[in-house]
Amino acid sequence: MDDPSDTDSPDGAEAETRTVEAAPAQHGIRLDKALAELVPEFSRSYLQQLLGEGGVRVNGRAAAKPSARVQAGDVLSVELRPTPQSQAFRPEAMPLDVVYEDEHLLVIDKPAGLVVHPAPGNWSGTLLNGLLARDAKACLVPRAGIVHRLDKDTSGLMVVARERGVMDALVRMIAAREVSRQYLAIAHRPWQGASPRTVQEPIGRDPRNRLRMAAVDLSLHAGKPARTDVALLDSCAQGCLVHCTLHTGRTHQIRVHMAWLRHPLVADALYGGEPAAGLGRQALHAWRLAFTHPVTGEDLVFHAPLPQDMAGALALWGLRYNPA
Questions:
Q1: CA angle in degrees (0–180, nearest 5) for 130-134-138
Q2: Measured between alpha carbons, how far is 88 from 78 in angstroms, rounded to an integer?
Q3: Which residues neighbour 158 within 8 Å (Cβ) at sequence distance 6 or greater?
Q4: If DSSP codes are grouped into helix, strand and coil, which group holds residue 41?
């Protein structure tokens, strides 16, 4: 007969049955609350989900009501089934374009379409999974050394730490604006007005759509200061090519600020852009990254060539770009 403590979840991943006894302190409280106290490493919402799936037994009987009251001495058995989150931090071999590497850090040219960190809807196939497979040291550093992110459909340069001390130093440098991050973007509508322009609109959750960010009035809505410098490189009847320098690192910052300028990025549907010039992903590329090495003190500067899809879009619209 199989050992009931070693079962398989529906996806084939091993599950664990945890058996605990309700203490006098749990007498009379809700079952879901008692479980959260007795199995504290799992969230209450996850334990409620297990209740609904029949994964909890009280004194040998299946329990499904989170509101059921627990008695002191009750024996609670919980089948802790692996969740997508618990399976996310696993090595997955994938090709990575590493443009620089030493024993302390590496710099990667991320392709469009690659998610940086596991999250709902993308629990595998992320850059973090690839870093864990590539480097044995990555598992010793939080988030595999990722210190800043690019959106899934943004391409370009990222620095990744290989040591905890280097990671802490890079995080401090980014917060102190000592890491220079510059981007190329293709936007809708011919450029109008002065160039360069500095946009200092605070950014927070869009009060009308919580799935996106927006330029907000801090007297009315929560948000954080943000600054982007935007310089025109070329313009045509369909749109423009701009150079953006980040001075802060807010979520979707360039995308939000360009939409605020009434120049949403090509194919950025979330902020008013539409597919055009052969592009089906937001036309944003992190082309230059510069910082002082936190260990050696060397000044490092990296450039990533414009990806083929964005170069093709420039050609279709007749926009000029000089990498120099």
A1: 85
A2: 22
A3: 107, 108, 110, 116, 127, 146, 148, 149, 150, 286, 289
A4: coil
Indicate the residue type of 134. R
Q: Are 2 and 14 in contact (CB under 8 A)?
A: no
Distance of CA 5 to the CA centre of its chain: 35
pLDDT in tens, 275-288: 999 999 999 999 99
Q: Are strands 284-292 and 155-161 parallel, antiparallel or unpaired?
A: parallel
Q: Give the whole-number percent of the chain exceeding pLDDT 90.
A: 71
Whether residue 73 contacts residue 96, with contact meaning beta carbons closer than 8 Å, is answered with: no
- 3-state SS, residue 318: coil
Are the C-beta atoms of 143 and 168 separated by less than 8 Å? no
CA 266 – CA 238 distance, rounded (Å): 10
Indicate the residue type of 11: D
The structure tokens 């370009």 sit at: 156
6 is an active site residue: no
Residue 19, strand partner residues: 77
- Band (pLDDT 50/70/90 cuts) for residue 48 is confident
Contacts for 81 with CB less than 8 Å, ≥ 6 apart: 9, 13, 15, 50, 53, 55
From the list 42, 138, 46, 41, the residue with the least C-alpha distance to 90 is: 138
In this structure, the dihedral spanned by the alpha carbons of residues 201, 203, 209 and 211, taken in order and rounded to 10 degrees, is 140
Backbone dihedral angles phi then psi of residue 215, each to the nearest 5 degrees = -75, 125
Q: Cβ neighbours of residue 251 under 8 Å, at least 6 residues apart?
A: 203, 213
**Nearest-angstrom CA–CA distance, 155 and 282:** 9
Of 151, 153, 217, 268, which is the active-site residue? 151
Six-digit token pair at 267? 């194919």
The region, left, alpha or beta by phi > 0 then psi within -120 to 50, assigned to residue 210 is alpha
Taking the C-alpha atoms of residue 309 and residue 324, their distance in angstroms, rounded to an integer, is 20
Rounded CA-CA distance 79/26 in Å is 20
Residue 14 pLDDT > 60, yes or no?
Answer: no
